[in-house]
Structures are given as structure tokens and as C-alpha cells.
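Entry 14. Structure prediction run on the chain below.
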Amino acid sequence: MKGKKMVQRSIKEHIHRKKNYFFWKRMFDLFFSILGILVLFPIGLIVGILIALTSKGSPLFIQNRAGKNGKIFRIVKFRTMVQGAESIGERMTIGDDPRIHPVGRFLRKFKMDEIPQLLNVLKGDMSFVGPRPLVPEHINLYTKTQQEVLLVKPGITDLASITFRKESEMLARSEDPLKTYVEEIIPRKVELNKEYIAKMSIPYDIWLIFKTIFSLFKL
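Output returned:
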């Protein structure tokens, strides 16, 4: 029902009506990003050391992503691929990508490579829940209507992250992974982003966070 109502008015108008929600969402992000950093710092330190010991290069991977209103920011993740992976293959991860180092494979399985993004949430570039931020090249492929999802902050997780949690495996089954990503996956992700925006609320965000956690342990 909420999705149908939002169709009758623009996403921009819908977002304008959610001012109180965005205030409390920011309070939620601040509190839990600080708490998460404090609690997970020892784990993050161990992960960083393991990456440094088993793979050359910095334990962190920093990349430009498109944030709210298309503003470019630097996303921080644990590096899960060999150093210079972007220069020796596709920007997408496809199937059992040989560029992924052993520690990185484990981190990706349980989304632990996303832990440093708590710093992005604390800074305000991201939220815990919102459309996943894409690289600028992929955002440039959006139509004007699809770009409406950039009116909210990107997040660590969202409906699309849960639905496409095995995206690399899906791409591995495609004869043309790039075409599949651009023509099939991106449009579907945008649809899911808009569905999230139509339903967004603090309880819904919390539900998506728990749904994401539970999804990590599904086969």
C-alpha cells in the first residue's frame, strides 16, 4: 500500500515529509556507529593484522562511491582482494574470483569486510540502512527517474543487498556478466531501493538490519 501511495507523489515530496524520521535515523546512526566501533575495534584489529600477514598491501580498501545527491565520498572497507585487483580484472566480483585472497573470502561470506564502513556512518556519508552506494561509473548509467534513489543517504545494507547477497554467483552464470549487471541487476536494485524509500521508518530499518544478519547464515 505504501509503495502505491508513493507512486502518486514524487520521491522528493515523500522524503520531505519524513524530516522527523531522518533526525532520529541520524541519532540512531551516531549512537550505534560509535558503539559498534568501540565493540568491534579488537576484531577489526585482528582482521587487519591477518590481511597484512597474508596479502601484500594495506588492510583497508578505499574507493570513490556516489552518495546522497550523487556527491562522491570515500568508502572504507577491509581489502578482500589482492593489491591492484582493479587493474587486473573487472570492477565486478564474478563467481569464485581468483583475485580474492583467503582471508578476504571469509570476510566476504559474513560481510565482515563492511565493518570499517562504521566510520562512514559516523562521519555522515552513509547510514546503517539505505541504497548501497555504487561507483560513479554505474551511477552514470541511471536514468533520470532511477537517480531519484540518490535523494537519500546510501547504507551498509538494504533490500537489494539481501536480495542479491549472492550476486557474484548470479553473474558467474551469465554469458555476459556486465550486460546482465547493467540491464537486469541495476534496474531491479533500483526498484528495491524505491520500495525501501516508500516504507522507510526506524522499525523497518531495524527489521532490515536483523534480516541482513540472519541472511548471512543461510546456505
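Confidence is low (pLDDT under 50) at residues 3-8.
Filed with the rest of this week's runs.
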